[in-house]
Amino acid sequence: MYDFDTSNLFAYLDTMLRLVGGALKLDPVAFQAVFDYRGEPTWLLFWIVFGAGLSLMVGQSVVLFANQVTPVRFLVSLILGALTFVLNVVVVVLVVWAMANLLGERSWALGQIARAIALASGPYWLAFLILIPYLGLILERALKIYVFLALLVALITVFNITFWGALGGGLVALILAQAINTLLGRLLTPLTARLTETLVGAVEISSTREIYEMFARRNQIVD
């Protein structure tokens, strides 16, 4: 069902969509398939994560519209955001891998764990739905829960642990990953801010929450 046929572009896309579909269904077989695969699906999983990040950026693109970003800078911003998402997933992978090797009774291959964790980002392919008016923030929170559930399925499948073990390990891994990402973000903020301003331009409104709050205030004034 989850074969890795990459012989041509159409087969490549079909394989990728099948895996994303498996992640959306929280199907353990999909996570087991990418974990057990003996080939090198590195780029395939990269595009799955990149697609998830791109969809997430599209869902949050109302921020760019509000700041009247030009089409070229809009596209550049989407790509930069998607690549940042990929880096965040890489940090999560490294944290899970380090925890597994430190706390586990066997040695775990980084590549195999990376595949399963990468596939857990599949539900974010639906993140473009965040653009739906009035439902955006609710959908964004729901997708975060959805992705976390996918991560739990990946952990349970790969490490053959209980739900509670996966829940505890997953929470600790995400907390550590968030701390690392925050630290890296602070260290790289001057560079990334300068790069973003150069390529995208100055952004006055930085989050979808600010957009919704702005519209809420306007509606209160009108009422």
- Largest sheet report: none
Q: Which value, in Å, is the CA radius of gyration?
A: 19 Å
Question: Terminal Cα separation, in Å?
Answer: 55 Å
Assembly form of the protein: single chain
Any idea how many domains?
A: 1
Low-confidence stretches: 204-223
Number of strands: 0
Helix/strand structural class: mainly alpha
Mean pLDDT: 80
Strand content range: under 5%
What portion of residues is helical? over 70%
Globular, elongated, flat, extended or rod-shaped: what is the shape?
globular
Order of helices and strands: HHHHHHHHH
With helices defined by DSSP (H or I, 4 residues minimum), what is the helix count? 9
Q: How does this model look, in words?
A:
Helix content is 75%, strand content 0%. The protein is mainly α and 223 residues long. It has one domain. α2 crosses α7, α3 crosses α5 and α6 packs antiparallel against α7.
Secondary-structure map:
Blueprint: H1 9-24, H2 28-36, H3 42-59, H4 62-66, H5 71-103, H6 110-119, H7 136-159, H8 163-199, H9 208-222
List keywords for this structure.
223 residues; mainly alpha; disordered C terminus; globular
Characterize this entry briefly.
With 223 residues, this protein is mostly helical.
